[in-house]
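Standup notes
- DV: blocked on the single-chain target, sequence here:
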Amino acid sequence: MRLNQILHKSIYTSGLTGFIGKNLLPGLLEQYDHVLNFHRDNKATIHTKNYQKSINVSQKLIKTYNSKHLIHLATHYRPHSKSLNELEETIQSNVTFILNLIETYLPKEIEIINISSYMQLLDIKYQNTYSLSKEIINIYLKDNKFRHKNIYL
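- DV (later): unblocked, structure below
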C-alpha cells in the first residue's frame, strides 16, 4: 500500500506563514490533498497543489476538511517581550488562539503535534517568554488528556 493511500486527505496546521511552516508546506502537499492553515484572525487558508484560498473558520469548514491531526507551529515568535503589549500578543498568539481553536472547532479526538522550543527543556532560569508560552500549551494538552506529541526544535 502506498503511503498517500493510508494518510488522510486533509491536515490542519497553524503557523505556516513562518520560516518552518513555509518550508514544511511543500512536503505536506506531497502527502495531503488539502492543508488547512488556521490564522489568529479566525480565518484559515486552504492550500492545495494548485491554489490557496482564504476562508472564515466555521464548523462547516472543519467538517468539509476533516482531519485527525493538527500540526501546531509557532503562531508568533518573539523570545523576549519588551512591553505589556508585546507580552499580551505573545500569549494571545501562542496560547489563547490555539486553545480557542481546539476548544471551539476541533473534535476532542484530534491528535495535536505540538512543535515546541528546545528552550522548554532547559532549567526555568533559561526560559524566555516564547518558550513559556509554548509550555503552557503542553501543560494544557496533558492536563486535559488531549492526544498530542511534542516535537522540540
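- Follow-up: Helices lie at 3-6, 19-31, 59-64, 84-104, 129-143.
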